[in-house]
Amino acid sequence: MSGTTTVDAGVRTLVVRCPDWPLTALGVGPLQPALVLASGRVVAATPAAREAGVARGQRLREAQFRCPEVRVLERDDSREARRFEAVVAALQDVTPWLETWHPGSCSFGVKGPVRLSGGEANLVRRAARLASAALDDLVGSPAGHPGCGIGVADGRFAAGLAAGAADASGVDGGGAVVVPPGGVPAFLAPLSISVLERPALVDVLVRLGLDTLGAFAALPVADVVARFGAEGRDAHRLASGIDGWPPPPGPVPPDLAVSVAFDPPVERVDQAAFAARTLAEVLHGRLSDSGLACTLVLVEAETEHGERLARRWRDEGVLGPGAVADRVRWQLEGWLNGPPATRPTSGITTLVLTPDEVVPATGRQQGFWGGASAADERAARACIRVEGLMGPGSVRVPEWRGGRDPGECLALVPCVRRAGDGSDVSAPAVLAAADGPPWPGALPGPLPAAVHVDPVSVEVRDASGQMVAVDGRGVLSAPPHLLLSPPGPGGSVARGAGDRVVAWAGPWPLDERWWDPERRRRSARLQVVTADGAARLVVLEGGVWRVAATYD
Amino acid sequence: MTAYHRLPASLLAEPDPFDDLEVDGRAEPTGGLSRPRSVPTVGEVAGRIRPTVLAVDRTLPVLPALAGLFPGGLRRGTTIGVSGMGARSLAMALMVRATAAGSWVAVVGDPDLGLAAAAGQGLKMERLVIVDAPDPTGWGPVVATLVGAFDLIVVAPRHRVGAVDVRRLAARCRERGSVLFHLGDGPWPGRLDLRLVVDGAIWDGPDAGHGRLCSRRTVVTASGRGMESTGRRTELLLPGPDGTTSGA
Question: Where along chain B do its domains lie?
């Protein structure tokens, strides 16, 4: 790399990171194999499980294949946040300027507290002692948790990685990696590019042969921007040891804070969280009016008796309304479920959200051709609203699966999905393209416009009144003559005394998944047109004819 | 320090999806005889400052085969009843062009809808959302929420829909420019702007055991407001041999 770029060293930061926090919060020690699952993927695993090959991002089936005895737990973010509050409260002794990133890791600027503690080494030791004491209290014994890792470096990104690299079982239950001032580029250079946590970009970079941060940082910035745009520039800054966001933003405009007073005081967390959601939207609206986005928010709550709890929440992305509302809920839950000494004694009267650090909002350009348009966003919002009214999974979108039956080709999947960190709701899922060769044995098109969820059984009779059967070679016993709905409640697809068959086609036998005793299916399909002009698809399976679909 | 303001009561309650409608769902009277001209109502002022809407934006595109029924396209803000054997196919065919142009479709309470057939008709599946049947009390608010946000809404209620809900939905459609399809022969306690009836289906293709269902020749009759008393008729292949709809 020719020429020296001036590296604006990031703010020297200390990060406390509790590894495998989702597991520690659920009370699972590091020695037993266990994993935590969210949206069907592994989000955390104990060291014992990791040794057996379980890794983050795997599907449950793959994880269980590698480690059959693994204990599977569902993720519980509010419990994680509640229990982490104890650690945060303990670290408040070091500095009040503590920022929680997410349950399991928090950070603070070293500059102030280092003077009080008399040197960085002392500060690290003190933080480690406080955090591991809080963890011991929380879990009951030092063996019940994997401790915590501490990292100190110029800039949050490097400090976070240093904390992750720290061996948590070090001194006082808290290992530490201290990157000396100015040593960040050297510390980052040998690390794998995947720590950037931008899967799409990392994938391309790896294919280009850039598999360490150092190799990526060595590229000239201009070339990176030309090829990868703003995202590439941010990633390049991180890799070069400059903190992610462009130069430290100026002071926050003072009139952005929003607050709400509760009268009567709110006693329940869900009530407060509901108001917080609305408040967060107001905040978001004000910020976006000024062209800003918030990366650090201060959430203050005050009770009737004057007790106060203020916490700072940071997100390296941008805190949207959903994310802020979740953080308020976590904070209040942690407070209300904390040790009796710090628990509030009365209802909450005031809630204040103050953006503590803002960045220029990159915003979203609405699509001109393609991309998300205003109609897409309106639809996505309505889906979320309706799901709120009707319950999860009630709003679904089709996804291509493929199959031989008209009902199998497209499956419905829930359209509102909680994002991995449980904070925001994503737009309807994108449909995979239905390209590919046709399925042999599929029903010939055009396909029926009504596929019955509960197929009604029906009798198919021949001219002599006998039931029509299909033999092993797929041949009908006699031409169908009459479609008769059986007596009894329910069936009304075939009407009255029966419908005379005027035309028919088939049968098309189907023998699917013969290797699988559970899901094996053998059937014969017949298209039948009756005298009233209705066309139906009747299927014989297990000796019973059913109207599987109607050509409506 | 920040001046705290009180939380308005409306923040704590779920907003009523109808709260942006006039009382009783009726539009403001436009004739000014009963009201002195000097005092314009809020509705009149809103009407004056409303951005200009081009005629092309007041309609949604339809297939050329359906142009006989909808000269100029599908009018936004209308309610349309589709019934008869073939109603689902016709409803899908009506929406094909609009989804291709970027409109979204919500189908409420029709679990039997054949998705593969919809894809075969050419409906853009990435703009199709299927909503489970809401319980009868929640039906109105759910559909109202969708009407504001989707251009095309298909409902097939299995219960008796209240007349109040229907009137409010129709008013909301007019205001927001969505098109509401009522599918099937069930009762609809309100006036539909247009009724489409599919009739006289003749299938082409199968015979006594050979061939396959290939295409269906149908007659679609449209009747409703602003139309000649005999209604309009058109012959359609619903569906045609390739799964899409075309003129017969």
Answer: 55-195
Give me the pLDDT at residue B143, please. Answer: 92
- Cis, bond preceding A180 (omega within 30 deg of 0): no
B130 and A396 in contact by Cβ < 8 A?
Answer: yes
Min distance B228 CA to chain A CA atoms (Å):
28
Q: Give contacts of B138 with chain A, Cβ < 8 Å.
A: 389-390
Q: What is the distance between the alpha carbons of residues B115 and B124, in angstroms, rounded to a whole number? A: 11
Query: How far apart are the C-alpha atoms of A407 and A402, rounded to whole Å?
Result: 10
Q: CA B10, CA A172: separation in Å to the nearest integer?
A: 52
The pLDDT of residue A433:
46
Rg of chain B over all Cα atoms, to the nearest angstrom: 21
Which pLDDT value is given to residue A498? 64
Q: Is the pLDDT of residue A425 over 50?
A: no
What would the mean pLDDT of A297-304 be, rounded to a whole number? 89
Tokens standing for B46? 């809103």
* pLDDT tier, A64 (very low <50, low <70, confident <90, very high otherwise): confident
Banded model confidence at residue B60, pLDDT cuts 50, 70, 90: confident
Q: Is B2 close to A257, i.e. CB distance below 8 A?
A: yes
**Domain A189-239: which topology?**
DNA polymerase; domain 1 (1.10.150)
Interchain CB contact of B239 with A (< 8 Å): yes
Give residue A102's pLDDT. Answer: 85
Residues A314-344: pLDDT tens digits? 876 667 777 888 888 888 888 887 777 778 8
Judged by a CB distance cut-off of 8 A, whether residue B100 touches chain A is no
As a whole number, mean pLDDT of residues B209-231 equals: 83
Chain A contact for B138 (CB, 8 A cutoff): yes
Structure-derived torsion over alpha carbons of residues A113, A117, A123, A126, reported in degrees to the nearest 10: -120
What confidence category does residue A403 fall into, taking pLDDT thresholds of 50, 70 and 90? confident
Among candidates A410, A445, A452 on the partner chain, residue whose Cβ is nearest the Cβ of B243: A445
Over residues A51-66, the mean pLDDT reads 85
Strand spans (E) along A213-343? 258-266, 292-303, 308-314
Edge-to-edge strand list for the sheet holding B179-183? A410-414, A395-400, B128-131, B105-108, B152-155, B179-183, B79-83, B194-204, B215-224, B232-237, B246-247
Tokens in use for A10?
């990031």
Question: ipTM beyond 0.95?
Answer: no
* Partner residue opposite A386 with nearest CB, options B87, B131, B211: B131
Architecture field, domain A12-181: 2-Layer Sandwich (3.30)
Interval A97-116: pLDDT, tens: 888 888 888 998 888 888 88
- A351: closest chain B residue by CA: B4
Nearest-angstrom CA–CA distance, B207 and A505: 7
Which residues on B lie below 8 Å from A450 (Cβ)?
Answer: 88, 112-114
Q: Are B117 and B89 in contact (CB under 8 A)?
A: yes
* CATH among 3.30.365.10, 3.40.190.150, 3.40.50.720, 3.30.1490.100 for A254-360: 3.30.1490.100
Say how many residues make up chain B: 248
B150 interfaces chain A, CB cutoff of 8 Å: yes
CATH fold group of domain B55-195: Rossmann fold (3.40.50)
**pTM of the predicted protein model:** 0.58
pLDDT digits (tens, 9 = 90+) for A378-393: 888 788 778 777 877 7
The whole-angstrom distance between B149's CA and the closest CA on chain A is 5
* Sign of the torsion angle spanned by Cα atoms A23, A25, A27, A29: positive
